[in-house]
From TrEMBL:
Keywords: Glycosidase, Hydrolase
Name the UniProt record assigns to this protein: 6-phospho-beta-glucosidase
GO function terms (MF aspect): beta-glucosidase activity
Any one Pfam family match given in the protein's UniProt record, by short name: Glyco_hydro_1
UniProt xrefs under InterPro entries: GH, GH_1_N_CS, Glyco_hydro_1, Glyco_hydro_1_AS
Cellular component annotations (GO), alphabetically ordered: cytosol
Active-site residues from the entry: E383 (nucleophile)
Gene source species: Domibacillus enclensis
Length: 484
């Protein structure tokens, strides 16, 4: 029987992003996005655990010119653009209360700096939202999920240019006004802290154009903070009953030992991770980050009124992705591992996924408790899941018990955190239908409850089929908790 730990109205569902899902990159008046330029690199040829950066003007021009054999999986996605009704019906069959998706900014403003939006792009999302609402599924919409228009990179070097604040706010106000009667839950920037490891994907920065990369990244982030706060203001004015949150790639950090040097190193890493939500939830730059800027010769240029905007227009809730925890050491000579998304020391107490991401369900409970203690605002887990190789059996079934085990363990710890007093709004499992991996552009790294017949090179029928985890998650939602 259900233990009843999850509150009535808990928002169970799944999460996706337009660039990994939609396809149709050159249909409906859409412009190119930054992720349209990230190609697939086979595992044996990768130089790191992630391959999603474009660093130079020359590299970007070469990608735009194209060459024989180019493979840009995010351009094709899984053809949600044409198959959204079929996919949403599957989500409804599982009982989704919410579905997290993103609006592709260049579908609405192909270049990003136009005044007039692309009506065909707006109409597409009208149809998607109508289909979701028809099935009783609340849309949870991310405004910017690694999909900024490529033109803004070429013309302005991304968010290094203050003018992008106005472009983004114009885009946000346009979609708020269009969908105010259909969408009540919004997020501003997906995993805003990713700019620190991928300036191109997080902020549209070509690093060969700047002299001081960290300076450029944190200036770009300041512009995003201001844009986010202004979007919050616009959302509250245009959609009075709406709620809008920020989104962080959460990295809980443990000290390697109880040596105070390790404890201090872990604390400082954790502060750097929570800096982003400090600004968006509390409304100001924390003192530890101002000291970091001073030590690293980083000077943030603020306009009059910026600090007031950040303070007055904080988010309604804090959403985050959770895939792994990290380990920090006070020893500068300690070797770093490349398996985790953010490189760190291997934790000997944890198992790892097929991609070397360490699996830590209890770390989710720790993180929920820590963030709720720090912020006292509702929390929302909008990404969590297991990327794994799936095998289709002779009878067509996919016996993904490993995924069920992973999700069961994490959902159990969520329930324990709620019992501990954490206010948790909902949970959207990442990649509820198989899609293109953000970090490696693979199709073979699968997260979904629904299998999609496509390989890393675009071969396959795109047929959808249910995995074993489909019925398991359906039961979780129906029961409002896991059932042993």
């Amino acid at each position: 029987m259900s233990t009843g730990r999850f509150p009535e109205g808990f928002l169970w569902g799944g999460a996706t992003a337009a660039n990994q899902l939609e396809g149709a990159y050159n249909e409906g008046g859409k412009g190119l996005s930054i992720f349209d330029m990230v190609s697939f690199i086979p595992k044996e040829e990768r130089t790191s655990g992630i391959e999603m950066d474009v660093r130079s003007e020359q590299e970007l021009n070469d990608l735009l010119a194209g060459k024989e054999g180019d493979n840009f999986p995010k351009r094709r996605g899984i053809d949600f653009y044409h198959r959204y009704k079929e996919d949403i019906a599957l989500f409804a069959e599982m009982g989704f209360k919410t579905f997290r998706l993103s609006i592709s900014w260049p579908r609405i403003f192909p270049n990003g700096d136009e005044q007039e939006p692309n009506e065909e792009g707006l109409a597409f999302y009208d149809q998607v939202f109508d289909e979701l609402l028809k099935h009783g599924i609340e849309p949870l919409v991310t405004l910017s999920h690694y999909e900024m228009p490529l033109h803004l990179v070429k013309e302005y070097n991304g968010w290094t240019d203050r003018r992008l604040v106005d472009f983004f706010v114009h885009y946000a106000e346009t979609v708020f006004d269009r969908y105010k009667d259909k969408v009540k839950y919004w997020l501003t920037f997906n995993e805003i802290n990713v700019s620190t490891i991928s300036p191109y994907i997080g902020s549209g920065i070509l690093v060969d154009r700047v002299d001081h990369v960290e300076q450029a990244v944190y200036q770009a982030l300041h512009h995003q903070f201001v844009a986010s706060a202004r979007a919050v203001k616009a959302c509250h004015e245009i959609i009075p009953d709406g709620q809008i949150g920020c989104m962080l790639a959460r990295m809980e950090v443990y000290p390697e030992t109880c040596n105070p040097d390790d404890v201090l190193a872990a604390l400082e890493e954790d502060q750097k991770n929570l800096f982003f939500t400090d600004v968006q939830v509390r409304g100001y730059y924390p003192s530890f980050m101002l000291q970091y800027f001073k030590k690293n010769n980083i000077q943030i240029e603020m306009l009059p009124g910026d600090e007031e905007i950040l303070l007055q227009h904080t988010v309604d809730f804090l959403s985050f992705s959770y895939y792994m925890t990290m380990v920090a050491s006070g020893s500068p000579d300690k070797a770093k591992e490349k398996g985790n998304f953010f490189s760190g020391i291997t934790n000997p107490y944890l198992e790892s996924s097929d991609w070397g991401w360490q699996i830590d369900p209890k770390g989710l409970r720790i993180s929920l408790k820590k963030m709720y203690d720090r912020y006292q605002v509702p929390l929302f887990i909008v990404e969590n899941g297991l990327g794994a190789y799936d095998t289709v059996e002779e009878d067509g079934s996919i016996q993904d018990d490993y995924r069920i085990d992973y999700l069961r363990a994490h959902i159990d710890q969520m329930g324990e955190a709620i019992q501990d007093g954490v206010e948790l709004m909902g949970y959207t499992s990442w990649g509820c239908i198989d899609l293109i991996s953000a970090s490696t552009s693979e199709m073979s790294k699968r997260y979904g409850f629904v299998y999609v017949d496509q390989d890393d090179y675009g071969n396959g029928t795109l047929a959808r089929s249910k995995k074993k985890s489909f019925d398991w998650y359906k039961q979780v939602i129906a029961s409002n908790d896991i059932i042993d």
